[in-house]
Every structure is written in structure tokens, then in C-alpha cells.
Amino acid sequence: MSEHGARIPTGFFQGLQLCLPFVITVAPVRHGVPTTGAVEAVAEAGGLGILIGSGTDQAVETFRGVARSLSLREAAAFRPTAWADHLASAVAAHDVVIVPMSRDGADLAPRIAIALERPLLPNVVEVGQERIVATRLNGGLADVYERTVPVVVLFKPGSRGVVRDPLMTVKIDRRSIEPTGVLADPVLVDDVPPDSRMVLLTEADRVVAAGAGVEDEEGVGLTDRLAAVLGAGVGATRVVVDRGWLPFDRQIGTTGAMVDPDLYMAFGISGATQHLSGIGDPRHVISINTDPSCAMMLRANVAVVCDARSTLRSLLQMLEP
Length: 321
Ligand SMILES: Cc1cc2nc3c(=O)[nH]c(=O)nc-3n(C[C@H](O)[C@H](O)[C@H](O)COP(=O)(O)OP(=O)(O)OC[C@H]3O[C@@H](n4cnc5c(N)ncnc54)[C@H](O)[C@@H]3O)c2cc1C
Prior knowledge:
9 helices, 2 domains, about 325 residues, 15 strands, Rossmann fold, alpha/beta, binds flavin-adenine dinucleotide, 5-stranded parallel β-sheet
């Protein structure tokens, strides 16, 4: 056992190839938009990545200052099994294949792991020279794996952040996709634009969250409407969830989701440790509360001492079409 957790049992990997000292990231792209966490995952792989999906050329711009070498594989529809089959030979020489832990990434990574006959490590927050760190229980504990065998990892968005180098240039190559064999992929019927309020909270760039200070379900409804106009995900404290005003998948905190948005708006939230530990490191925190000295107000960049519901109504009056 290491200081943080378990080692991968040696017997589990018998028959796997010897480790090669290379890391690469594979990132799905839809309509020119890389999957959540893609830039950070490419940074973790030292700037080496494969972009696969639709609009890969358009997506390159997002990786400026982070990517050194990108291989673009243009493909119309999302076909994770066919893609994994195609990618297996391209990534086989890399001992760690990083895939961002987004919805598309979570569909693709297990298929790549199967195609390469490698173990899959989820919740990874660090790929080091000699070890890979993964979290458990929403970040409460860490497993540390020695980098002794080839693996596929799902890399958690928001784990490491991104530092861009304005002088870095990126080398691009383009390859066509040639899947082989009989492949079972679901048939894509339609590509529906997302309802931002329903996105996985872990993937939301903006979160509008309700606490007990919104007072009732009507107050939560106002929060929901504000989230809709701001293109934000709806979050909540445990008190709101326990009262049945929102479902559990909206709860943020130690026993709920860990989020890491750019903007976090807290309406009537006191800022208990169990809640604050789940909000990540947002660039902007706005708190609306009648108590100017509660922890949420102290954590905010903008603290508005006001009634939550009347603030919500005023904002909706200004912002709703
Ligand atoms: C083991 C354990 C795990 C937990 N896990 C979580 C978790 O994952 N997530 C989580 O959120 N909590 C969790 N909790 C609960 C946590 O300790 C707090 O009780 C909870 O976060 C408080 O929620 P709240 O801010 O909505 O309510 P309160 O603490 O009751 O705060 C309400 C706030 O609303 C303000 N207010 C009141 N009226 C108004 C008004 N009219 N306008 C504006 N503001 C107003 C008040 O000033 C106050 O700041 C956990 C607790 C335990 C023991």
C-alpha cells in the first residue's frame, strides 16, 4: 500500500505489454466543440492529442498554447465503438491513453480499453512520470497507482487547470477514419441541442444554486428560470434536496456533485463547509443573502445583501425575453 491508497495488484495485469513511457490524449469533438475537459487532458499529456469527431479543424483553436501536436480524425456521427477500433492502433504505443471524463469521453474510454485489452482507471486527477492519482468518494480519498502497466484513464475535468504558452506552436496532421471488422454502435437518430439546466453539474460552466433562503418551491422555480436565461446548470444545497424541492442529482457538496464552473451564483445559501467543498474554484462567485457575514458571502467576489426571491424576480424582469 502507498501512503494514499492501493497499488494495482500485480497479478491483475499478467499478460499485458511492458510499459512504454508515452502519454496521449484522445478527445471527442462535436460540431467544432471539444468535449468538456479536453484542453486540460491534452495539457496533461504534454500537448499531444488526437481530436476525433465533427469540426475537428474548427476545434484546434481551443487548444492554442496547450497542444504541441494534434492529429485530427474527422467523423460525422458519434460512433464510439468504431472510433475505439480505429484509434486502437494509433494509441497502442502509448502506455497511458487519457480520455476526458465527460459524457462522450465516458462512452469512448471503456471501448478503447477493451480494444487495447487494458484496465480503465476512472476519476484520474493526475498523470505523473511514475504514478497516476485517482480520487474516490468525490475527492475525499485518493488512490495512487504506480505507472508500471499500460492503462486507459478517464481524466476528471477541473483537476489541474490549464496554463497557456502564447509562444507554443501546434503541429497538425489529418487522418481518415478506417474502422475494421463487425462493429456494434448505436444508431444516432438525432442530435438535440442541450438544455443547459439539465447538463451534468460537473460539466456546467455556470451554476445557479438555490439554498434554504429561497424559502420554497416557488423560489426554486425562480432559480430555475434564471438558470435558463443564463444558460446555467441548476444546483442546490442539501437542505433544498432534503425538502424535496430539487432531485438529488442537483445537490452540490461533500455528499453531492463536485462542480468547477466559471460562474457560481448562490441564492440564500449559508456556505456550510460541506457545501463549499463542492463548488470547486470558480472565477466568479456571486452570493445573494440577507446575512452579510455568512461564509457564502465571505467566499463571494460579489456579495449582495438582499432578499433572494426579490433579487431573482428583478433579474428575471431584466433578462427574460
Ligand atoms: C455529513 C454531512 C454531509 C453534508 N453534505 C452536504 C452537501 O453535500 N451539500 C450541502 O449543501 N450540504 C451538505 N450538508 C449540510 C450542510 O451542513 C448545511 O446544512 C447545508 O449546506 C445548508 O444549506 P443552506 O445553505 O441551504 O441552508 P442554511 O444553512 O439554513 O442557510 C440558509 C441561508 O439563507 C439565508 N437566507 C434566509 N432567508 C433569506 C432570504 N429571504 N433571502 C436571502 N437569503 C436568505 C440565511 O441567511 C442563510 O445564510 C451536509 C451535512 C452533513 C452533516
